[in-house]
Specification:
By secondary structure, the protein is α/β, with parallel strands linked by helices. It has two domains: 224 residues, Thiamin diphosphate (ThDP)-binding fold, Pyr/PP domains (Rossmann fold), CATH 3.40.50; 126 residues, 3-Layer(aba) Sandwich (Rossmann fold). The chain has 15 helices and 15 strands. The strands form three sheets. The chain has a seven-stranded mixed beta sheet, with helices on both faces. Strands 10-12-11-14-15 form a five-stranded mixed beta sheet, sandwiched between helices. Helix 5 packs parallel to helix 6 and helix 11 crosses helix 15. The N and C termini lie far apart (41 Å). The N terminus is likely disordered. Heterotetramer of alpha and beta chains. Pfam families: Transket_pyr, Transketolase_C.
Length: 368
């Protein structure tokens, strides 16, 4: 069975919210083990949601490398989003364990563990709470290799964290802090859009010889459902993916925003506008060549993300593409992003970059 489009994933999720609940008991064990029928990419697969795909990746990482460890707040019993369900029972409390509620301590311990040649897979329970660990990530992990002249490194470090809107999180459980880490040389920043992408990109991140910050769109943990190969596989980092071909305008996004952008593309097509949609996947170092080639063809660019517009990573994309494609651009680069306010609760629908906001920006850019 071929992979579903983002819209098909979204429709399936909306139609099956009741049955796509958090697994328990034998169902959880089966999901974690990936027992299934069907064929995807030459291997057996089944339709799973995003948190189950993450769980599969962590099982494989621990199973294939005895020096890998998973730790963080509450991961021992499965975590608040159930991404680590079954790991401690299978691999033991010495390799999958809870930490104190101290993000700075989690990151500092992870740096040290990775520096000793291990694979440290640390979880920050919500991306909103990664800021106490900022010093350890930015001043230690990112600079470890550079300051030692490549004699030492902590390249086996991966920090996972749920990010973005969840529908009811408010200002302490909905933030998108990716731009903070994109500013830091020495880190890689990865954000998947779907279960298949999440599994392949997470395994690639864990095995990458550089420290990686891996943000998971919590909105999609249960809603995004896709057929995912059971086997061990990796997807390339720093390679964007063109997931919809078009000729009139290029749209760039990552994470949960891709589903919003695809809906806007489909509505734009009804008005005769052909949109090319690109999932950046890796934000740092990002695939400028793929984006440049697309914009050179369409002459127009729109970037959309949930984070506030000022200083968001969309600004870096806009500046870089303006430098590279200035003579080929037919309109200013458009950005449809979150607002420059704390993330609201009651007014979340006004804050979010919705399909209609994107569609209006598409039409304004094309008709510029």
């Amino acid at each position: 069975m071929a992979a579903k489009s983002l819209r098909e994933i979204r429709i399936a999720a909306a139609a099956g919210i009741g049955r796509r609940r958090c697994f328990s008991g034998d169902a959880a064990a089966a999901a974690a083990a990936g027992v299934a029928e069907g064929k995807v990419g030459g291997g057996a697969g089944k339709e799973v949601n995003l948190f189950t795909a993450i769980n599969q990746a962590l099982h494989i990482a621990l199973d294939t490398d005895p020096r890998s460890y998973v730790f963080g707040e509450d991961v021992g019993f499965g975590g608040v989003f159930r991404c680590t369900t079954g790991l401690a029972d299978r691999f033991g409390r010495n390799r999958v364990f809870n930490t104190p509620l101290c993000e700075q301590g989690i990151a500092g311990f992870a740096v040290g563990l990775a520096a000793m040649g291990n694979r440290a897979i640390a979880e920050i329970q919500f991306a909103d709470y990664i800021f106490p660990a900022f010093d350890q990530i930015v001043n230690e992990a990112a600079k470890f290799r550079y300051r030692s002249g490549n004699e030492f490194n902590c390249g086996g470090l991966t920090i996972r964290s749920p990010y973005g809107a969840v529908g009811h999180g408010g200002h302490y459980h909905s933030q998108s802090p990716e731009a903070f880490f994109c500013h830091v040389p020495g880190l890689k920043v990865i954000i998947p859009r779907s279960p298949r992408e999440a599994k392949g990109l997470l395994l690639a991140s864990i095995r990458d010889p550089n420290p990686v910050v891996f943000f998971e769109p919590k909105w999609l943990y249960r809603l995004a459902v896709e057929e995912v190969p059971e086997e061990d596989y990796m997807l390339p980092l720093s390679e964007a993916e063109v997931i919809r071909k078009g000729s009139d305008i290029t749209l760039i996004g990552w994470g949960a925003q891709l589903a919003v952008l695809e809906e806007a593309c489909e509505d734009a097509a009804k008005d005769g506008i052909s949109c090319e949609l690109i999932d950046l996947r890796t934000l740092i170092p990002w695939d400028k060549e793929t984006v440049e080639a697309s914009v050179s063809k369409t002459g127009k660019l729109l970037v959309s993300h949930e984070a506030p517009i000022t200083g968001g990573f969309g600004a870096e994309i806009a500046a870089s593409i303006t430098e590279r494609c200035f003579q080929r651009l037919e309109a200013p680069v458009a950005r449809v992003c979150g607002l420059d306010t704390p993330f609201p609760l009651v007014y979340e629908t006004f804050y979010m970059p919705t399909k209609n906001k994107v569609l209006d920006a598409i039409k304004a850019t094309v008709n510029y």
